[in-house]
Amino acid sequence: MKRSLSVFLLSNILLAMSCSPKEKVDLIISNATIYSVNSEFGIYQSMAIANGKIVGIGTDGEIANRYESKEIKNLDGAFVYPGFIDPHCHFLGYGQVLANANLKGAKSWNEVVDRLVEHQTQFPTTWAQGRGWNQNEWDIKEFPTNDLLNKVFPNKPVLLIRIDGHAAMANSTALALAGVTENTKIDGGHIALQNGKPTGLLIDNAIELVRKFVPAYTLEEKENALMKAQENCFAVGLTSVGDAGLELDEVLLIDSLQKNGKLKMKVNAMLSPTNENFEHFLKNDPYSTPMLTVRTIKLYADGALGSRGALLLEPYSDSPETQGLQVEPTQKLTEVCQKAYEAGFQVATHCIGDSAVRLMLNIYSQFLQPKNDRRWRIEHAQTVHPTDMPRFGQLSVIPSIQTTHATSDMFWADERLGSRITSAYAYQELLKQNDWLPNGSDFPIEDINPLYGFYAAVTRKNQMGEPENGFQIENSLTRQQALMATTIWAAKAAFEENIKGSLEIGKDADFVVLTENLFQTSDEELFRIKVKSTFINGQLVYSNF
Q1: Do 196 and 225 fall into the same domain?
Q2: Cα separation, 373 vs 385, whole angstroms
Q3: Residues 193, 334: one domain?
Q4: 21 pLDDT band (50/70/90 cuts)?
Q5: Residue 442 half-sphere exposure, CB side, CA atoms within 13 Å?
């Protein structure tokens, strides 16, 4: 009798549920393969979205029974992932350099200059500018001089930034405008000389001697740069970016454009360590809106390996007269960390060389207690001395990596580092320290496409499939780790894991639809996967259907 009554009651409850009105939502995604990247790494078929948030996720039947919408997108089995997050890039800077000559992939200095001439013919400007040259890709892997620039541009100032952003070539007209001579000295920088005269090569802080004479971008130009950068980034599935080093007017512009609906890209704005930024932001709690987070100060400890500005514990193997450059005094780095700590802000410091990593770990240790949740970051962490590796875990310092750096550098990095190459680009080893890490691109140094970083993380190869067995393959990431590093772990690096980075009820409906499955596509095809569409807060911002 009791059993019959229980069955009767259960039947009535189910009948009542089936007859209850369905909840109206803005969008239903159905017939999809949805990788949620939640704690169980669950895979679902359907999502319901309302007011920019995920309100339901499950099977097609479960969602259809509970929700209804005027807009239902049947994805025909396509593959859905959380919107990709680049935790370390130069979003505004990328938009700005799109207007300059693209020097990436040039196979010689002559080709660099030819490209600049062609660009200036089509788009003449008062200063000739370009970015992306890399002497390590040339037959003669030596830094050029400005002789050819002086011949081709005898009267127009020229400034060409190396691919890493830490070296530049200036012609003599530009040097003269800046007052740079053989007697000019600058801390944290180097002015190359030949026969007692500047060659035009400027390393790290020396670049600023000339760059400050280049006409500044107007706010209108910066707005245009942001909009163009957004358009390109949506097309590769990016829904959030961490812009590493912004001035006050730039952060305020981003905030304004987001609030008026023009800029839909979500931004974690890392502040340059200026008095204006400190006065505006550090006297208050970290600033956040649904689109913008401001709680990080970006510092530089050294330069880059390719231009021999990375600060090493021992001399460069291919240039024993130098150990690189410390671009900011230890006292200043310490003082900024003190300000950040007292204000409850995060610190993220560029460290390429093992000496720079040790320097910042030493400074961080003055403020951080073991197993804290401050999430202070070492950006790049390209070369880490083995004795310093455990300190990341001990101090809960987060290594913020860029896996495409490894595959871009792998054919020449051993020349710089010698036997130290075995402790460079050690991403799996770094991952073990805290059991998570974010992976970005540092664009425009690398390409904006996060799937290139996914491919590099998993295969440790370039897009020609080299080397055959992968570069130091023991430090490759699994596909699940690689996806988490550009979604939930990237969100966590900005203290945003509770609102984005996975597809779960209550989180922002930021997601990307891909043509292929990241977990079933062959290694060699991973970087060729295309984005079908990108959604932010449930709104379609890019479609390639």
Answers
A1: no
A2: 24
A3: no
A4: confident
A5: 21
- For residues 179 and 267, membership in a common domain is answered with no
Q: How confident is the model at residue 9 (pLDDT cuts 50, 70, 90)?
A: very low
Other C-beta atoms lying within 10 Å of the C-beta of residue 249: 11
pLDDT, one tens digit per residue, over 216-255 is 999 999 999 999 999 999 999 999 999 999 999 999 999 9
CATH code of residue 199:
3.10.310.70
How many structural domains does the chain have?
Answer: 2
Is 79 inside a domain boundary? Answer: no
- What is the spatial distance between Cα 265 and Cα 542, in angstroms, rounded to a whole number? 12
Distance CA 179, CA 209 (A): 8
Rg value, the chain, Cα: 25
- Whole-number Å distance between alpha carbons of 523 and 337: 42
Residue 480 to residue 496: CA distance in whole angstroms: 20
pLDDT score for 13: 45
Same domain, 227 and 303: yes
* Shared-domain flag, residues 228 and 270: yes
User: What pLDDT digit, counting tens, does each position of 157-179 carry?
Assistant: 999 999 999 999 999 999 999 99
Contact present, 204 and 188 (Cβ < 8 Å): yes
pTM over 0.85: yes
Q: How crowded is residue 540: how many other Cβ atoms within 10 Å of its Cβ? A: 15
Distances (CA, A) of 129 to 132, 257, 480: 11, 27, 40
Domain span holding position 431: 85-90+219-501
Residue-wise pLDDT tens digits, 127-139: 999 999 999 999 8
Residue range 18-27: average pLDDT?
Answer: 84
Maximum separation of any 2 CA atoms in the chain, in Å: 105
Whether 284 and 401 map to the same domain: the answer is yes
DSSP string, 483-535: HHHTTHHHHHTTT-TTTSSS--TTSB--EEEESS-TTTS-GGGGGG--EEEEE
Q: What is the Cα–Cα distance from 3 to 343, expressed in whole angstroms?
A: 63
**Helix/strand number for the chain, H first, E second:** 19, 26
